[in-house]
Structures are given as C-alpha cells and as structure tokens.
C-alpha cells in the first residue's frame, strides 16, 4: 500500500442487499478497523451489545449528539443510528482502513466531514432478487417489506453519488471484490500527492547532479 | 464484472520501471486483450515481430498514419511507435479488457479518443531504485541511462494526470495489484449508468404495483 493514511470506507445499500453479512465476512477475513454504530433500536434475536451495535437509550444517544461525539447520526424508522467519532479518527491516523456501514442519508454527511471517504453502494443484481431476499429473511412482516421496497426505490436516486456500485450476487466473490476496491483505492492518484512530489524531487536532484 | 463494455487500460511509466516485464506477467496470468504496438525501431536481441511489437519500415508506418489506422502514434528517440486501432475497438465491444503500454505523450492522445480509458502509471518506489534498475539492465550505455533519467524527470510532471500511481516494488504483488485495479474499475459508478437506470426502473415498477 502506498498512502500512509487509512481510507474511510462507507458502505450503504438497499435493505436486503446483504450488507450485514458482507461486513461480517469482510472483517473476519481481512484486517479492517470496524466502527461499531450506536443505535436506539431494539436488538434483534442473536444481536449483542458492542458487537453488531452499541444499543443505547434515547437519552444517552441525545447526550452524545449534544456533546458532538458522533460523526453522523440519523433517525430511521423511528430509531436513532450514529457513528462515534473518536475511534474512527484514531484508526485512520494510524494508517488503518476503517469501514462504516451507514444508511444513505448518513453517508453523505460523512463525506462532508471526510472528503476522501470512499462511498460504496451494495445492491443485489436486480429488484426481484431484492424482494426475494427480504421475503426469505423471514424476520419482517409483509407490510414492513413493502416499506423497505418503497424506501429502496427512493434510495436508488442516490446511487449515482456513490463511488462504486457493488453487486452482491455471490457472497464470497463480493467480499473479495470489496477488499480489492479498497486496496486499489490506495493507489489512486488523488491519494498519492506526497509520493508524486517526493519522486519528482528525487528525479530533479539526479538531473542537476548530471 | 458488471459493465459489459471492456475497459481500455493504458499503462505508462518511467523507462526502467519494469512495465514490459509486468505486462508479460499480467497477460500470462489473466485473460486480457493485448494490443501489440507497431514501431520502426530495431528489434532488441530476443524480440520477435508480432510478439513484443510489429516491426515496420518507416514507409509502412507513415502509410498507416495517413490511412488513420492508428489510435495514436509518436516519435520517440528517433523512432515511430503506434497502436493499430481496429483490434482494440473490436475487443472492447466484445466486453474484453484491453491493455496498452504507451509512452506518456501517447497516453493522453488515447484518452482524447477513449474518454473512459483507465490510465495507470508504473513507478519504482524511489528514484535511486529507478537508476539502479536502468544500470543493472545492462543493455544501455551510461549516456543513454542519463538521458532516460532526464526524461523521467520530465515525465514525472504528468503523473498527476493518470488515474492510478502503481508502485512496482515486488513484481508478483504488482501484477496482482494491477489486475485488482482493473477489476475494481468495472464497479465504478461512472461505468454503471445503465445498471443504475435498470435497477431504478425495476424498483419503481414494484412501487406502482404495491
């Protein structure tokens, strides 16, 4: 890797695109810093505090907002979601890539504060597949599934503002692909100003020395 | 891969950065379309016509220029170098990624004709290493090596106009990295307008149907 600063990667995507499963697999397989989000929503069966989310009361969450301790926060389907700031900044400064899974509205707030953030949007290969996945997940009523599909239709408008559109067709391939995208981004010219300057200066010294 | 159209990748870099060796390894290991350049320079020992280059007379080369059969051509250290157009366009249309190894001046001519071309710049990790590689190659006089280093100093100015700066430190890692960058680029949002439109339309149909 060339650039010393870690890359902040923001992962969004349609509800049902498989973001959660992808993130778990990616973080198991590779050495990323994960920023665990805070939320006021009720844990699903099997979810643990400090693992999937920090599950907070509304009072505690609102206090963090007031203290400026969150990079971003949003209210979504009646609950707060947010990202504690301190951990993310420390990781990036230490050269570690950090991945955040964030709803669409939150992603653009992150980009305002971290202009070099890399925004990835996860999508199933088509809309039928999205509906099938929501239905087969089996944790939601048909009414909620319809709401999520309507929401997806609204979110699709924002896909163009992401840097990459990543199709999650095969979990394993998608995890590899996400990792490749982030690795590749380290070599992007815009992230390597200081290397270019160093190399140019060294070559100029040779020229003068000849 | 998401986008159906192949990506035209243009690889440039300092003389001595190891472009030739990298290209050979990349094309051996992965399924890329290689566009073989035409040149009027004399073959080096071991080089075969139709493999490293098409070795042409000046008369034949100038006839191809006149007929518009070259995407780009340039004169460099007294010889013509150029890229036959037809083969490249056929490969891209068939969804195949094509890689061109082109001098700096030629790379920007390609971008004018193929705005979606991906421009990669190969560099050793530092200038000392560049000089060492030129010296150890042993095929050039010290005078020619100095000329190449002066040339590198001039070319460094153009690094910022490339999309990626790829450090060739370890051959094997660099080959993998080049392949990852090209694979990743297929998911870049700007290359997936038609997918985004299709997905948006499908989701809108669901919305109306509900």
From TrEMBL, chains A, B:
One of its GO terms (cellular component) is cytosol. It is found in: Cytoplasm. Its EC number is 2.7.4.8. Gene3D superfamilies: Guanylate Kinase phosphate binding domain (3.30.63.10), P-loop containing nucleotide triphosphate hydrolases (3.40.50.300). It catalyses: GMP + ATP = GDP + ADP. The keyword Cell wall biogenesis/degradation does not apply. It comes from the Bacteria. Pfam families: Guanylate_kin (PF00625). Its main location: cytoplasm. GO terms for molecular function: ATP binding; GMP kinase activity. Residues 6-183 form the Guanylate kinase-like domain. It is an enzyme of class 2 (transferase). ATP binds at residues 13-20. InterPro entries: GK/Ca_channel_bsu (IPR008145), Guanylate_kin-like_dom (IPR008144), Guanylate_kinase (IPR017665), Guanylate_kinase_CS (IPR020590), P-loop_NTPase (IPR027417). Keywords: ATP-binding, Cytoplasm, Kinase, Nucleotide-binding, Transferase. Belongs to the guanylate kinase family. Essential for recycling GMP and indirectly, cGMP. This is Guanylate kinase. The gene is gmk.
């Amino acid at each position: 890797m060339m650039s010393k600063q870690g890359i902040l990667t923001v992962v969004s995507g349609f509800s049902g695109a498989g973001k959660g499963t992808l993130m778990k697999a990616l973080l198991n397989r590779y050495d990323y810093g994960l920023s665990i989000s805070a939320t006021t929503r009720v844990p699903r069966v099997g979810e643990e505090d400090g693992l999937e989310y920090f599950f907070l009361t509304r009072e505690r969450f609102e206090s963090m907002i007031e203290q400026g301790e969150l990079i971003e926060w949003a209210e979504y389907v009646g609950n707060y979601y947010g990202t504690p700031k301190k951990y993310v900044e420390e990781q990036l400064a230490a050269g570690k890539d950090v991945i955040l899974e964030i709803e669409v509205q939150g992603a653009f707030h992150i980009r305002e504060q971290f202009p070099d953030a890399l925004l990835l949007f996860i999508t199933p290969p088509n809309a039928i597949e999205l509906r099938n996945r929501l239905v087969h997940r089996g944790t939601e009523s048909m009414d909620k599934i319809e709401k999520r599909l309507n929401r997806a239709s609204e979110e699709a408008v924002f896909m163009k503002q992401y840097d990459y559109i990543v199709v999650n067709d095969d979990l394993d391939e998608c995890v590899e692909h996400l990792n490749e995208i982030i690795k590749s981004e380290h070599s992007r010219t815009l992230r390597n100003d200081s290397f270019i300057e160093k190399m140019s200066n060294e070559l100029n010294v040779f020229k003068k020395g000849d």
